[in-house]
Structure to design on (396 residues):
């Protein structure tokens, strides 16, 4: 159990660092959702299941979806090069 | 002196609307082709390439990048050390008879008797600290209103999804939603109604139910959810829930944590109909949270309900 906890905490730090280091916004949103899922498991291990439910529903679900929708609105779901090609084709 | 901002301000006070007229030296601009936006942008790029804008050495791209890197690392370290300091001040996790404050001790010892809630957390947030929770619901509602103001579109256009990203109408998604959606909604209702008995409560249950509605609307399109969540119903539910909460608990702000006697019996702790006002308050918070989650999603997605 102790090893599992340490693994989760290391994954948390890894996710937190890699969110800021990834170039593609879509990837960083997905890593952010992974972070929230891991965090909700950590909440269960810290014996606060109510926070775990909220974290899983809000952190991994709703706010991730809102960020994805925003990315779609500003058309950054593809990499920058692909997006440029796409807009060129549309015109 | 004639060009200074202060002189301009004085002239503006005297009623001169064009404070820079005559004070600025105007130079003749090179002939800009006027036929189209694209050509103009092209021309500007051309001009900028030949005569790049002078940038002071201190603000060169490399220096700015180094500055940002250093500042972000310093900010990170400061925040991390503040948080660690705060954590080291807390009593150790899971230790019995830790040094606790008076208030905490009272909540833990008298909570069950005074609120009737087995789940001490919801006893605190919906009874002793109900006024705080009211504020939280209003923060959510304000956020929804801001999203409404910013993203609302009144045009009656069809939902124009960018095709490569739209999942609406995807068969795999629809089938899996058919199986998971009932489970998600029932779980949400369970968490909501058992808020005073087991972990969970209004916010968690409402968030789960809102997530379920978002799932349905993603797979089957907004028309399906729009059939039973119209704008009018949405507003009515939010208004009734918030005003019920406000009327039943806002006096706590004046009377203190224990509030007034409600006259509702607390019931047997552990039964579903117990702990007085906590169950209805949980339902009210859950309604507001569900509506807010779904409403914000619809605003981001389409701009109307």
């Amino acid at each position: 159990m102790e090893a599992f906890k340490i693994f989760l905490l290391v994954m948390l730090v890894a996710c937190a660092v890699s969110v800021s280091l990834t170039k593609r916004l879509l990837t960083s949103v997905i890593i952010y959702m992974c972070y929230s899922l891991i965090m909700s498991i950590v909440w269960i291990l810290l014996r606060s299941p109510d926070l775990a439910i909220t974290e899983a529903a809000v952190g991994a679900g709703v706010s991730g979806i809102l960020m994805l929708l925003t990315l779609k609105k500003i058309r950054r779901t593809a990499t920058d090069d692909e997006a440029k090609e796409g807009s060129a084709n549309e015109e | 002196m004639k060009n200074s901002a202060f002189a301009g301000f004085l002239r503006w006070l005297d009623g001169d609307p064009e404070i820079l007229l005559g004070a600025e030296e105007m130079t003749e601009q090179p002939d800009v082709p006027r036929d189209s936006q694209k050509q103009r942008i092209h021309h500007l790029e051309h001009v900028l390439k030949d005569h790049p804008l002078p940038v002071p050495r201190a603000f060169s791209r490399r220096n700015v990048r180094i500055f940002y890197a250093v500042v972000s690392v310093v900010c990170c370290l400061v925040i991390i050390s503040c948080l660690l300091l705060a954590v080291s001040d807390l009593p150790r996790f899971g230790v019995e008879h830790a040094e606790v404050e008076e208030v905490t001790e009272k909540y833990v010892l008298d909570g069950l008797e005074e609120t009737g809630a087995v789940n001490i957390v919801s006893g605190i947030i919906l009874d002793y600290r109900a006024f705080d929770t009211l504020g939280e619901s209003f923060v959510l509602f304000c956020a929804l209103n801001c999203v409404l103001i910013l993203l609302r579109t009144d045009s009656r256009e069809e939902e124009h999804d960018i095709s490569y990203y739209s999942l609406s109408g995807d068969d795999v998604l629809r089938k899996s939603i058919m199986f998971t959606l009932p489970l998600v909604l029932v779980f949400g209702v369970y968490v909501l109604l058992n808020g005073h008995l087991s972990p969970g409560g209004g916010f968690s249950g409402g968030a789960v139910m809102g997530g379920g509605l978002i799932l349905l609307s993603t797979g089957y399109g907004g028309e399906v959810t729009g059939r039973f969540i119209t704008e009018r119903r949405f507003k009515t539910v939010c208004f009734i829930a918030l005003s019920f909460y406000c009327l039943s608990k806002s006096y706590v702000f004046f009377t203190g944590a224990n509030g007034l006697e409600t006259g509702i019996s607390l019931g047997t702790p552990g039964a579903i109909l117990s702990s007085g006002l906590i169950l209805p308050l949980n339902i009210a918070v859950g309604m507001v949270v569900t509506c807010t989650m779904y409403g914000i999603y619809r605003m981001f997605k389409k701009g109307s309900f």
User: Anything to note?
Assistant: The mean pLDDT of chain A is 82. Residues 78 and 86 of chain A are 9 Å apart (CA to CA). Helices of chain A lie at 2-21, 25-45, 49-73, 80-90. DSSP finds four helices and no strands in chain A.
